[in-house]
Amino acid sequence: MILIAEKKEITAIAIFGITYALISGRRLNILPLNRPAAALLGTVLMVAFGVLSPQQVYRAVDYDTLVLLLGMMIVAAYLFLAGFFDWAADWILRRAKNPQSLLAYVIFTSGTLSAFLVNDTVCVMLTPLVVAVMARGKLPLSPYLLALAMSANLGSVATLVGNPQNMIIGHLSGIPFLRFSRVMVLTAIAGLIIQYVVLRIGFRKVLANAVIQRPNGHWRNVDRKLLVLTVTVLVLIFAGFVAGLNLALDGFGRRSVDHGFGASRHA
């Protein structure tokens, strides 16, 4: 039994290494296999080599996290449809006094939104707008796109809904939402400050030579009714988190006990 367990462990480590290499290889243009396909291949290999049974694979999927992730992405999508991200980008460009302060605005905005929404979603929603803002403002793309990507990851660590990893931690550990944030908010803020300093130094020549060109027109109008409705829903969601509800299952009228944001998962 011990030998079988050790063999499975070695096989699992080998499959993990292969899967990780496939994911990394795409970034190096060596193995053009996208991340979902590589992850699926790793799962198939786990079953094919007897490390996990199909039933164990199904049980390993945290459906609460998937439901919560979907819900947060839907909220972010409605914010986009309401014109919130357009408005935020225009507001930032108009109020930034110089390229350096614009960099700080991008970092602060991306980091803050990622703490309340999902970091992947914030990147998807904000990237076209940041590119448009830079094009309209005649500014270099590199420092601001790096600021967006880095701050989205750093800001997301502040809450249990900032990224999928934190969601899994919340569901499996039972750490209350506010307790988690009390510890991680300072870490996120420190990371964002360090990020600004690093980018400010690394791109000091580029930023010093850049000049913001203010836009003459306005972005598309904000759908105020949809925006108010979406923000209200978002506030209620976080009120539920603070109250200890499991929002992934709350739509079924189930109250949590010992898992996920102080909530338990039900079959």
Description:
The protein has 267 residues and is mainly alpha-helical. It has helices at residues 2-27, 35-48, 54-60, 63-81, 84-95, 99-116, 119-137, 142-156, 164-173, 177-202, 204-209, 224-243. Helix 6 runs antiparallel to helix 7 and helix 6 packs antiparallel against helix 10 (177-202).
Key features?
267 residues, mainly alpha
At a glance:
Helices cover 72% and strands 0% of the residues. With 267 residues, the chain is mainly α.
List the helices and strands and how they pair.
Layout: H1 2-27, H2 35-48, H3 54-60, H4 63-81, H5 84-95, H6 99-116, H7 119-137, H8 142-156, H9 164-173, H10 177-202, H11 204-209, H12 224-243
Distance between the termini: 31 Å
Q: What characterizes the major β-sheet?
A: none
Q: Hey, roughly how much beta strand do the residues contain?
A: under 5%
Global morphology: globular
